[in-house]
Amino acid sequence: MIRGEKGFLIDLDLAVAEQREEASGAYGKTGTRAFMAIGALLGEQHSFMHDLESFFWVLFWICIHHTGPEESRVVPRFEKRNYVDTEELAGMKLGVVSDDDIFGKITMEFFTDYFKALIPTVGRLRRAVFPGGGRWKKEVRGLYSSMQEILREARKDEIPPFAPS
């Protein structure tokens, strides 16, 4: 974790009450495609699991695109996600999370130096959100708690403040 940095992540205008039985009624898919869960891209009925997976994709995107506070970059390999159809994007995302070695290689190559210290934490989140390297097939009620615990543990790690080399 980067000490002393604060952030605010919100997209509550699209939030869904967990007890709701049906979709919101919004026409088509809504949300930022790069952050959408694989199942949502494939047209599945919305689940709280999609929201948790979306959190993973937001964090992944931040670690790839942000080089420091208020500094970012464009990464052509991931920029394509804005232009392919939803099924192709779902496949691209599965390719990223399908295997520990592939995921490790991608994070080492594309996470900015500013966020490289988060690679182990994002890897643990990946294993929680994508059990066995695939997309989830049934809801896991304890996933939110598991993700919280992974993030709590990361905060305990003694990671020094970022110092450029």
Rg value: 16 Å
Catalogue the unreliable spans.
Answer: none
The end-to-end distance, rounded to whole angstroms, is 18 Å
Count helical runs.
7
Q: What is the percentage of strand-forming residues?
A: under 5%
Number of domains: 1
Q: Report on the biggest sheet.
A: 2 strands, antiparallel
Reading the helices and strands in chain order gives: HHEEHHHHH
Q: Decide which structural class fits the backbone.
A: mainly alpha
Count of individual beta strands: 2
- Largest sheet, order of strands side by side? 1-2
- The whole-number mean of residue pLDDT values reads 84
Shape: globular
The level of helicity is 40-55%
Pfam families: Pkinase_fungal
InterPro entries: Kinase-like_dom_sf, Pkinase_fungal
Protein name: Fungal-type protein kinase domain-containing protein
What does this structure look like?
The structure is a single chain. With 165 residues, the chain is mainly alpha-helical. The protein has one domain (32-156). Helix content is 45%, strand content 3%. The protein has seven helices and two strands, in the order ααββααααα. The protein has helices at 38-41, 48-65, 76-79, 86-97, 100-110, 119-129, 143-156; strands at 66-68, 71-72. A two-stranded antiparallel sheet has the order 1-2. β1 (66-68) and β2 (71-72) form a beta hairpin. α2 packs antiparallel against α6 and α6 (119-129) runs antiparallel to α7 (143-156). The mean pLDDT is 84.
Question: What descriptors fit this protein?
Answer:
45% helix; 165 residues; 2 strands; mainly alpha; two-stranded antiparallel sheet; globular; 3% strand
